[in-house]
Amino acid sequence: MAVVDTENKSDLRQLFQNISPYFTPEESEDVVLSFKQNYGGKFNSLDDCDLLKCFHLLEENGYVSENNLKLIEDFVALKSRGEELIKDAMKNFKASRPVKADPEKKLQGRNDEITKINRKLASKDSAALNLFGSSGLGKTRLAKEVCSQWRGTYYVFDLREAKDMRAIYYNILHSLDLAVPVGYIELKNVVAKVQEKIRELQTKKEGHGVLFMLDNVDRFTAGQRKEGKNLKTAFIQFLEKLLETKEKGSPLKLLLTSRAQLKDSKKVEDFEVKSLKRSFSEKILFPKGMNDVQPHQMDKFLIPPKDLPFF
User: ORC1/DEAH AAA+ ATPase domain spans which residues (predicted)?
Assistant: First the structure.
C-alpha cells in the first residue's frame, strides 16, 4: 500500500492557493484552456476559470512536484501580470523546503550496468572499459553517472570534435593544466606529463585512482579505410601507453563511449550498452497519470526502427 506524504502535499497545495490570486479571471481562463488543448483527458473536465483545480491535476499527474516546478515557472507564471510576485512566492517555497535528493533526476533502469562497471573499474585486472552501442542508448549519461560515483578524481573529455591525435593530446593536457607544446607533439612526452600528473592527483586523494572519461571516440574506433585504421592504431597505442605501469594495477582508469567495439586492444575491455527494458522506458517517456496514451501509440515510441534511435 502506497504511503502519501500528506504534509508535503498540503504545503505544495498551499503554494498553489497562494499564487492563484495573482491571475485575473481572463488569465486563469487562458492557462486552463492551454492545458486542455495540450493535455486533454481529465483537464477537459475543468471549468474554464478553475485554475486551482488545474494546478491540483498537474500535481496528481506528475507534471509538477515539490522538486519540479519548472512548468509553472517557465509557462504558467508568464501568463500573469503578477509574474514577479508568483516567482517570489515559489522562491520562498523552495527556500523553506529541506534539501532532498530528486528521484526524477536519478538514472533509471541502469543500476545493474552501473554496478558491473564500477566493479570492473575497481578491479586491478581491468584498466579500461569501452561502453559501446547504438546512438541514443544513453552511453554518455551512463558513463557520467559512473564518474559521479568515482571515489577518486575524474575528468571528462568530449572528443566529438577531435579529428586527430594532436587534438586529443591538446584537450587532455589543457584540461590537466599542463603546458601544451608548440608544433610537433611527441607521444612519449605527452604520456610522461600525464602520468606524472596522475601520480600527483592520486597522492592528494590518498591513493584513490584517477578516472578519465573519453566521450564520443567514434572517429578513433571506427577504423574505416586506411586513414581510419591508422587513426585507430595511434589511438589504441596512446591508451595503452597511458596505462603502462611497473606495478600491477594502473592508478589510471579509462572509460570510453563509442558506437563501435575496440577489439584490437588487449587493455581495453568492451562493455555493450543495450536498450532499456520496456518497463523503464514507459516510466521515463510516460509520467504517472498519463492514461490517455494507447498501447499502439506507446509502441511507436518504445520500439523505434532498427538503427534509427528516437532520441
Answer: 129-258
Cα 37 off chain centre by: 31
Burial 6-15 (b: 16+ CB within 10 A, else e): eeeeeebeeb
As given in the structure block, the three cell numbers for residue 244 are 603502462
Cβ(185)–Cβ(166) below 8 Å: yes
Q: How many angstroms separate the CA atoms of 86 and 267, rounded?
A: 56
How far apart are the C-alpha atoms of 77 and 195, rounded to whole Å? 53
List, in order, residues 6 or more apart from 209 with CB less than 8 Å away: 152, 202, 250, 251, 252, 253
Over residues 26-60, the pLDDT tens digits come to: 999 999 999 998 888 888 999 998 999 999 999 88
Burial label for 79, CB within 10 Å (0-12, 13-18, 19+), is: middle
Q: Which phi and psi (to 5°) does residue 144 adopt? A: -70, -35
Cell of 224: 574505416
- Contact partners, residue 128, CB within 8 Å, separation at least 6: 239, 243, 253, 254, 255, 256, 265, 267, 268, 269
**pTM (two decimals):** 0.60
